[in-house]
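W.,

You were right to be curious about this one. When I first looked at the sequence I had no strong expectations either way, so I just let the prediction run and decided to look at it fresh. Below is the sequence, 173 residues in total, followed by the output.
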Amino acid sequence: MPSREQLANNKYLAPIAHRFLSPELWRFTRRSVPRGVALGLFSAFIIPVGQIFLSAFLALPLRANVPVSALVTFITNPFTFPFWVVVANRVGALFIEFEAVDADELSGGAWTWLVDFFEMAGTTVLGFVVLAIATSALGYLISGAVWRVIVARKRAKRLAAMRTRLDHTPGSN
């Protein structure tokens, strides 16, 4: 995981490196973490290569957490990418049904494999777009809910510890 300084010293990021040093992009807050998760998921599915840079660039104007955004993009890595291609193809097939424009002209010809490839590729691309939008929305909602649960538990522990201290202080009933 690149640090703030490594991103700031990257030659491709040099024109906007000063913006990466903003502390709000590196803090884990209730607003920046869900934004980072959503942005990372969107970047992971919308383009197959360079997701980390896309999520880092988009984190700037959206004030999302950069480390979380970059880390979540690893959901699509070289080992899991074939699985996501199959899922995207199936999701895309739910939304679109291809029909050949002129089936008589193309069927049985030398170009059949190319038509089949573009039909499948179009379905898969649509599936990736749907996955990008759906997973980013779900990721935002789930990470926000998990964040609230974690904070509520910590607060409950603090309050219980405070009550215990108050109960054990001399002079209290």
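Here's what jumped out at me. The mean pLDDT is 82. And, maybe more interesting for your project: Residues 21 and 116 are 48 Å apart (CA to CA).

Coffee later to discuss?

I.
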